[in-house]
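Issue: copy button drops trailing tokens. Both records pasted manually instead:
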Amino acid sequence: MDPNEASPTESPAPAAGVAALPEPLVTPDMIASARARVSPFVRRTPIISTRPGELGLSHGVALKLELLQYTGSFKVRGAFHKILTAAQRGIPEAGLVAASGGNHGAAVAFAARRLGHRAEIFVPSTSPLMKRDRIASFGAIVHVVDGLYDDAQAAANAHQFETGALLVHPYEDVDVVAGQGTMAAELGDQLDSYDTLLVATGGGGFTAGQAAWVRDTRKVVSVEPVTSQCLRAAVTAGELVDVTVSGVASDSLGARRLGAVAWSVVRHFVDQAVVVTDDDIRAAQRALWDELRLVAEPGGATALAALRCGAYVPERGERVVVVVCGSNCDPSTVTA
């Protein structure tokens, strides 16, 4: 069902003395507009269906292969939408700036080259060398910052303040999140019906984009590494909180705090938040390679890991879609 054709979702009236939740900052209308804007610049990624017994699962699932998107991840959807939207007002002479563990930076660099803009990307020292090289291959200037993603974001923020460059934040931006939501809109055209969407969560922009599109028409399950779980921590606490970050997927799923834009959507439309171990993630990577010959980075295999390890158990007959969202890793870490 297209959420734009469904009846508006009505939240139950709050109990006396309880404030209603603020409305989501990203809506289906915004995502539909984003889709029209970015369609000429992104790939329509394929879906493959597995049979019971494949990938270590007793049931079949549909895999949405966002790892086949330009630059190897879904990130170009949000990057193109942010830049194209900003271009209507004019891109600063200083160009674009972003912080990234790798995938967002590659997406911004790719979009900047395609659209004719300068880009500078700040990456943490924990980002794999191959991801830094990937960003540079698209013509962006790469700055390596000691620390983790949030340290790189602080440096990018300082650069934006000093130069006036356009900051393209990976998840704390309504235009970026609306762009990421175009995947769910595309998925709705490709599958007649499904019940549940499993999505890996870092800072929350990708998960929120999908949830903002499907709203209450589908179940959305967030999957995070147990070592980096800002969404689950926020849901548990009922507010945004800082978490520690580590683990095999920290370069792509290693945000210390869920984004406020994402939180405005998550608390309305994300139904469940589960976590998986590094071993679960590595095993899911290996299964995708052994059975489908797909090289998925740790973050890209995290959603599948939840099904394989039992962190999420579908009901009988439940139709599940798993997003395989990234491929940017050294293949030898998966195939050897």
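Record 2 (pasted manually too):
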Amino acid sequence: MLTDLPNLLTIARIAAIPLLVALAAQHTGWGDGCACIVFALAAITDWLDGYLARRQRMLSEFGRMLDPIADKLLVTAALVLLAGSGRLSTPGLYAALLILMREILVSGLREYLAGREIGLPVTRLAKYKTAAQMVALFLLLAGDDGGAWLTGLRLPVEYVGEALLWAAALLTLFTGWGYLRAGLRIATQPPASRSDPAPR
């Protein structure tokens, strides 16, 4: 189970977090550039482990448990790292706060519904939110210095990253409200009539 390739990729995503932090802590162009590359590779494993698990029929309870944990650890580590190092503006901090609050909300709802053997399906809008969020964090971890080190050009990477972070935060509000509404609908239904509604 632990040695299945999808699970190894999930574990590698968690193991990449200390390396990401260590590189970003250098406060240099090459450190930021390498940090964003590590983040990008870790983010790719998020898609790849699920794809391989479905394609090779390696779905497991261990993978179902660990995959969302790895995702949230990676995103939370990146956001806290950026905030703690002063690399987010005040509006950017508000966007990061919205994203973190939504992650906590959805995690709590999933735990509550799991106790009733009800799943909370991922919506298409939530997938768009994740994509915008990952690209935003990639750009913000690179920063202007890391972007210049990677491309040789001085580009407004941080402005684009914060704009995408806010786009992800706005999508977070919509998707979070959808998940909360679905959870409340289930919680207020009599036990016999509970089903698995997908938030819209």
